Each structure stands twice: as C-alpha cells, then as structure tokens.
Amino acid sequence: MPEDRDWEVYKAPPTRTPVSERTTSLPNPVTFFQTVFNYVVDAPVTFVREWIERQQAKNKFYYYHQKFRRVPDLSECVEGDYLCFFEAEAQWRRDRMVDQEIVEIVRERLGACKHREGPNQFQNCAKEMEQLAQVTKAYQDRYGDLGVHGNARTCLMKQKHRMIEERKAQANESQ
C-alpha cells in the first residue's frame, strides 16, 4: 500500500448535510396534514388511553387468581334457603371441575411416564399407575353415574346411599 495517498480520489465526506433550497413559499401539504392528524386524532386518543391505563394501574384485578370462599354444603342449608342452595350448587360444580382437572393431570403424568420409559413402563411407572387408580376410584365414588345433568342434590343422595350400604355391610360382618 503506497504511503502517499491521493486525497482527491478519497475525499472526506461533508461534515454537515446541506439544507435544500425552498422553491416555493407555500407550506408542505404533508407536514400540514401530519400536524392536523396529530392534533385532531392522535392526541385525544393518546390522552384517553393514558388516562385509562392510569385508572387500571390504580386498582389491578387479577382475574386468574380469583379465590372463592367456601360455602356451606347442601346438607348444611336450611330448608327453603334458596340462596344457600344456589351457592352450594355453584361450589359443587367448582369442586367437580377441580376434581376433573386433577384426574386429567394424573392421567397426563402417567402418559408422559409411559412415553418416557417405553418398554419398561410397567416396572418404572407403577407409582403413577397406582396414583391414577386411586384418583379415578375417588372420582368415580363421588361423581360416577350422575350423568351430564348431575347436581349437588343427586351427588349428596348418592353418597348417602353409599354410606347406608357400607353400614349395612359392617352390621352383617359383625353378626
């Protein structure tokens, strides 16, 4: 590489960008429409949005962490207390959905274990199989044979009949 550079070939770039010469005294219509749009449309929308965000920041509501208080069971409701009946029914439906999700989670864990272990699934996934058997038996004991239109009252009656049968079986054994 030569020591003496030809400065005319490799000129340094200009230090400042030259200002373009205006050829007319009229304002640019694009800048005019941008300014009008900013003041008429953008500024009010931005103001309203920021105001709403400030209001929402004051009182945060986490809907996905909603916790319901436990209500009395249907057996604890006084006769004719329809509000208590309604709350007990809603509580029963929430409990049923939670129990369904528990069964589904245990079933997914068993499926993942079977997939992971392959041919050794019967030996290595015995704990998960036992847990699934316990969970499904508990779910079946409580909600089985109720059908789609099952409610808290029919579930309570089913549990009552099961308890009566267990007492009869105990009485027959002791005799």
UniProtKB/TrEMBL annotation:
<dbReference type="InterPro" id="IPR039993">
    <property type="entry name" value="NDUFB10"/>
</dbReference>
<keyword id="KW-0999">Mitochondrion inner membrane</keyword>
<dbReference type="Pfam" id="PF10249">
    <property type="entry name" value="NDUFB10"/>
</dbReference>
<keyword id="KW-0249">Electron transport</keyword>
<keyword id="KW-0496">Mitochondrion</keyword>
<dbReference type="GO" id="GO:0005743">
    <property type="term" value="C:mitochondrial inner membrane"/>
</dbReference>
<dbReference type="InterPro" id="IPR019377">
    <property type="entry name" value="NADH_UbQ_OxRdtase_su10"/>
</dbReference>
<keyword id="KW-0679">Respiratory chain</keyword>
<comment type="function">
    <text>Accessory subunit that is involved in the functional assembly of the mitochondrial respiratory chain complex I. Complex I has an NADH dehydrogenase activity with ubiquinone as an immediate electron acceptor and mediates the transfer of electrons from NADH to the respiratory chain.</text>
</comment>
<protein>
    <recommendedName>
        <fullName>NADH dehydrogenase [ubiquinone] 1 beta subcomplex subunit 10</fullName>
    </recommendedName>
</protein>
<dbReference type="GO" id="GO:0045271">
    <property type="term" value="C:respiratory chain complex I"/>
</dbReference>
<keyword id="KW-0472">Membrane</keyword>
<keyword id="KW-0813">Transport</keyword>
<comment type="similarity">
    <text>Belongs to the complex I NDUFB10 subunit family.</text>
</comment>
